[in-house]
Design brief:
about 100 residues, mainly beta, 3-stranded antiparallel beta sheet, flat
């Protein structure tokens, strides 16, 4: 997600200097909850946006993240959820 911009260009160095890659062995699958954080109902936007809360289990770091989609009905969305991953709590990551 990019903040404070409406262009579709790649993120610049200032936006990515603190990004890190996390190997898949340090993660396991999280899930999208039927819990809407926000939607754009009433904004007059040309496209719909709903932000759904990402759910974590006890073995994962709860990063307080969300997933955005143009689907407002969770039952329709639930049948085609993307795979979402979270970092396992029992892993230690050293960033240099």
């Amino acid at each position: 997600m990019r903040l404070n911009t409406d262009d579709k260009s790649a993120p610049n160095a200032n936006e990515t200097h603190n990004f890190v890659c996390v190997h898949e062995s340090l993660c396991n699958e999280a899930f999208i909850q039927n819990d809407v954080i926000w939607n754009d109902v009433g904004t007059g936007a040309k496209q719909d946006l709903t932000l759904w809360k990402v759910g974590f289990n006890d073995s994962q770091i709860d990063a307080k993240t969300f997933y955005g989609t143009n689907v407002r009905d969770f039952n329709k969305f639930n049948n085609r959820q993307p795979k979402i991953y979270a970092i396992k709590k029992d892993k230690r990551i050293k960033i240099e």
